[in-house]
Amino acid sequence: MSDATRVPPPAGSAVLSPKAGSAGLPRNAPSLRELEVLRAVITEGKTTAAAHRLGISQPAVSRAIAHLERRLGRTLFHRSGNRIQPTSEGLALNEQIEPIFATLARLDTQTSDQGNPKRLRIAAPPTLSHRLLTRLIAAFLKDNPDASVHLEIGMSTTVAAAVADENADLGISDHLIRHDGLRMHPFRHAIAHAAIPAAHPLAERSEIVPEDLAGEPFIALTRRFHQRNVYDRIFAERGIQRDIRAETATSIAICELVREGVGIGLVNPFPVAQRRLEGVVFRRFSPRVDYLTQFFAPAGPVTPIAQRFIEHARRTVAPDAYSHPA
Description:
Elements (H helix, E strand, L loop, with lengths): L31 H13 L2 H8 L3 H15 L4 E4 L2 E4 L1 H26 L5 E6 L1 H18 L4 E6 L2 H9 L5 E4 L8 E10 L1 E5 L9 E2 L8 E5 L4 H12 L5 E6 L2 H9 L4 E4 L1 H4 L7 E6 L4 E9 L5 H13 L6 E3 L1
Parallel strand pairs: 3-4, 3-5, 8-12, 9-10, 9-11
Antiparallel strand pairs: 1-2, 5-13, 6-13, 6-14, 7-11, 7-12
Helix pairs in contact: 1-2, 1-3, 1-4, 2-3
């Protein structure tokens, strides 16, 4: 994608339109390449990994982020040595641009993948992609050397839309999804746990109740998720005020903020706890909040390769202390 390519701001966005030009478009609109770099850095967590993903140099990634911050007049990342952490404004911008890349991915997938019985198109949100699917895909391809996989990462709403529109053969999510155009395949059941810094006094408890979190710095899901409403109602019914210091769209981001000492969060422990998170412990939350991770496919017959992948996942995901087969 050319750095000269420009994209119009998302509807209703003040972030992407700091100043309008004579043609009605923002003079300082970010290039599509700069937005692509932003997305890659947030997804990968490191500029070096983002550079490898995009096929460019690490200095080019750093320059693109610096240019984007100057264009917008906002700090999108905190930097400390070799570490780079998105700010709340960086995360918000990443959410705003997600539909742009979801549309581009659907167009690309439609062009290259239709009618190929050996190619599996999977759509998944970030936490499940990085904490679960990368391992599953690697093992699946080893067992099916004639197959190939296209993994598209997006928010749960865009994932569901991609599958319903048959732009993906298979999706997965732990969020509440209701869609007549989808057929659900239950995969894994878990209950909510509190993610707590290992050195925090509450880490000594075996169970966390709402009263334990009164006044505690808290990291919440963004309000567009059903589970955020569930948690808000639990605390409101008990008259408990949390000190919400950060909001984000993924469980893995919550856990990373917990590890940085920002506060405590409530998450689905599957699959984040399948890989050790240094400095974070998980404790059962009461009252019980259920999570059901499901595969879903278009309402018609499931493609043979998608069915093989579902069966592979059910057969190979290792037992853990936080979830069980659904």
